Amino acid sequence: MSDYKLLENVCMADYCTFKAGGNAKQLYLVSNVQGLKEVLSIIHSLNQKPYILGNGSNILVSDKGIEDPVVMLCDDFNIITVEDDVITAGAAALLSKVSRVAYENGLGGAEFASGIPGTVGGAIFMNAGAYGGEMKDIVTSVDLLKNGEEITVSSGDMNFSYRHSIAMDEDMIVLRMRIKLVRKDKSEILSLMDDLNGRRRDKQPLEYPSAGSTFKRPEGYFAGKLIMDSGLSGERVGGAMVSTKHCGFIINYDNATATEIYELIKKVQSIVYEKQGVMLEPEVRLIGDFE
């Protein structure tokens, strides 16, 4: 097995859940830590900055594309292991798969993550959460790559806060995580997972491409309600639309370009600020040049 593979001129719309965006000049598919170190060495020797891609479920890539190399973790980074009440999961493993493994082993506490579409790496990077649970609640430690060296950081030193971790502030790449769960009746775990995923299907526009919640929750408010109260339900720019099912979601309703999605984000921010006095901050990460 090769440690990495290089693809060129890759359409990023195929690699993100918004299904929009331009090309990446280079996409490295990295199979293991050794391959990651090799690829990073190549990229740094060219004075370029890598962009680490997970499941693409929280990004919007500019229609102009990405000049810097994109690195996507796969193969060994998908491995999930269980030892007693501790699950170790690689950065590329889907959170939904981790939650499923927890259920299969009678371990509770990760049910909140069962419907989150991202990977472990992305979830740690932004302390992902849903339905009252966050990654910081279950993570015990994280293995990271910093300056070419593998380090292990305890949960308490990850600086987890709302949609934030230390990996956002420093040049670190998530390699794997360890979570500690609790023994629980499998039927109870499955019941809660089914309930949460049912609520997600009922309340969120899962039938359209999106990046989940478009905006962070402002302190003391709910972004979706602010947008709805501003009369923006169903607001459109080209093929991009504020979901009528949940105003906190901007969806790719009809073959939207990344530019149209971006323009709708800016429009929503402007009108909500004008009408509600609250400036919404995007939760979606904007990659590339949008100006």
What can you tell me about this protein's structure?
The protein contains 7 helices and 18 strands. The protein has helices at 33-45, 95-104, 120-125, 166-169, 186-203, 223-229, 258-276; strands at residues 4-11, 23-30, 51-53, 59-61, 70-73, 80-83, 86-90, 107-108, 129-130, 133-134, 139-146, 149-154, 172-180, 182-183, 236-237, 240-242, 250-252, 285-287. The chain has a 5-stranded antiparallel beta sheet. A 4-stranded mixed beta sheet has the order 1-2-5-3. The longest helix has 19 residues, at 258-276. It is globular.
Please write out the topology.
Blueprint: E1 4-11, E2 23-30, H1 33-45, E3 51-53, E4 59-61, E5 70-73, E6 80-83, E7 86-90, H2 95-104, E8 107-108, H3 120-125, E9 129-130, E10 133-134, E11 139-146, E12 149-154, H4 166-169, E13 172-180, E14 182-183, H5 186-203, H6 223-229, E15 236-237, E16 240-242, E17 250-252, H7 258-276, E18 285-287
Parallel strand pairs: 2-5, 3-5, 4-18
Antiparallel strand pairs: 1-2, 6-7, 7-13, 8-14, 9-10, 11-12, 11-13, 15-16, 16-17
